[in-house]
Amino acid sequence: xxxxxxxxxxxxxxxxxxxxRYMFKEQLQITNNSTDDDKQDTDDIxxxxxxxxxxxxxxxxxxxxxxxxxxxxxxx
Length: 76
Hints:
Elements: H1 14-27, H2 36-54, H3 59-74
């Protein structure tokens, strides 16, 4: 089981963010064929997660917050 209390030991670099964004979009199945709204929502969620990482939030709290945001977006 993953340690949900960990935080990043250093700020994310632009390369880190690029690679993470690519992996997240792949996991969420966001492609060139996705709607513009889906692409924008995904970018917003990823940016929100990056902000929380940079604020020193734990993995567990980031998962909780992002999950909540995704539920809100899906019920709109």
